[in-house]
Amino acid sequence: MAENNPKKKKGFFHKLHDKYRLVLMNDDTFEEKLSFRLTRFNVFIFFGTVAIFLVFATTYLIAFTPLREYIPGYADFNTRKVLRELNLKADSLQAELRSKDLYIMNIRNIVEGRELVYEMPEPLEEQEFVEINELTRSREDSILRAQIESELRITGFSPEQVQSFEPQPMSQFFFFPPINGIITNHFNPAQRHFGIDIVAEEEEPIKATLDGTVLFSTWTMATGYTIGIQHANNIVSVYKHNSRLLKEEGSYVKAGEVIAIIGGTGTLSTGTHLHFELWFNGNPVNPLDYIVF
Is 21 helix (H, G, I), strand (E, B) or coil? Predict the structure, then answer.
């Protein structure tokens, strides 16, 4: 009898396919305006599809449109790219600046008679200083001191007298003209022309202006064959654009001794001439103030 009961309850999946009607009626006249035939399964499919569509639409807006910039935690890709490029440019500029500083430092070292450096020193705030309480005297230092003291005794001066010597003004020195010729370009530090240009005949010898030791005797792309001499009283003379150099580094020369032959080497040269510079205490001075050409 139970099997023939028409009111037997249906299962859940059977209920999904039960049909319903959604009717829209006029409340006053009870006139039917619109009706829909629905099932639970259709309603579930409809709202599930809408939910999936909203999820995909939201994901697309966040991933591929500028709207993601308004969401906390997302940064603009172009901004990161610009920042990365600016960082690379800043690093390149810093490296170029250090290279320029190293070049200027070596030029100053050459003029002042110091050794060349191949790496920029660290800033003072980044350097570590070790306090030295006492230095031990090496065997080589003792030999050098004894040699210098013996030479001073031969000349009649004591070490105390040498230490008491004061630098003399440049006007007290007699400068030998390095070459006789016509001055075509004068001393002008404002235009970074730290010497004078003297035009003379080809193969004209160039002479040392004072006694001293050859500081450097080399060739550079800009100044060609160049020679510099360290004199007493912290005076340095520089002779540029030569065709040949006749003295080597470390050679001792006398005033008026031939050290080079005039030329026009180097990219900065405009013809056969001598570019002559005088430096005193690391600063350029006008040779015409002390030498009569």
Answer: strand
Report residue 10 CA to chain centroid gap. 85
Angstrom distance (rounded) from CA 177 to CA 125? 47
Q: Which amino acid is at 293?
A: F
For 171-289, give the CATH class: mainly beta
pLDDT per position as a tens digit, 41-89? 888 888 899 999 999 988 887 777 766 666 666 656 567 777 788 888 8
State the Cα–Cα distance between residues 214 and 247, nearest whole angstrom: 7
SS (H, E, C) 55-77: HHHHHHHHHHCHHHHHCCCCCCH
Q: Which residue has the higher pLDDT, 59 or 125?
A: 59
User: Tokens representing 85?
Assistant: 């490029």
Q: Which of 210, 185, 164, 187 is nearest to 286 (CA)?
A: 187
Q: Give the pair of three-digit tokens for residue 147.
A: 């040699």
Mean pLDDT of the chain: 79
User: Do residues 239 and 223 touch, judged by C-beta distance below 8 A?
Assistant: no
pTM score of the predicted model = 0.46
Collapse the DSSP code of 184 into the 3-class scheme (helix H, G, I; strand E, B; otherwise coil) and give the result.
strand
Question: d(Cα 230, Cα 289) in Å, to the nearest integer?
Answer: 19
Domain borders along the chain are 14-64, 83-120, 171-289
